[in-house]
Amino acid sequence: MFKNWAAEQDLKFSKLITEIYDLKQQNRIYKIYKNIQETNLEIRKFMTYASSEYDDMRKKIAKLEKERSEYTENLMKMERKIHDLQVKSRTASIEFRNIPMQERETTDDLLSIVSGVCNALHIPIKYD
Q1: Whether pLDDT at 42 is above 90
Q2: Which residues form a coiled coil (predicted)?
Q3: pLDDT in tens, 53-102
Q4: What's the start-to-end Cα distance of the chain, in Å?
């Protein structure tokens, strides 16, 4: 009878050990599962952050592209104005050729050259 009882106790003890082992395994699996959930949550947070940063960068790039196109347009307008001014200034200017250049020419020197050329051509000029 004692042997029977001891065998039953051994069997129960063995089952208890097996169940404790199974619970430990489940606990380990649960910890791994929790760790995976935390990692997934961190990944989601990072993806949300990265997505918002990406959207911000796209907005900034779009703004910079718009500014660049405006600057390009303004530059083209200014180049046209410069060209127009150059064309206008050529219609009101006189160019003398084959007259030797002096070192350190002054305005008075240039006026005397123009006056001399005009006198030689019998063109009256007025000084203001």
Answers
A1: yes
A2: 47-88
A3: 999 999 999 999 999 999 999 999 999 999 999 888 877 777 778 888 78
A4: 144
- Give the Cα separation of 102 and 111 in Å (integer): 13
pTM of this prediction exceeds 0.70: no
Nearest CA to 113 out of 122, 126, 100 is that of: 100
**Whole-angstrom Cα distance, residue 71 to residue 44?**
40
Residue 95's nearest CA partner among 112, 114, 82 is 114
Give how far Cα 52 sits from Cα of 42, 59, 62, 119, Å: 15, 11, 15, 79
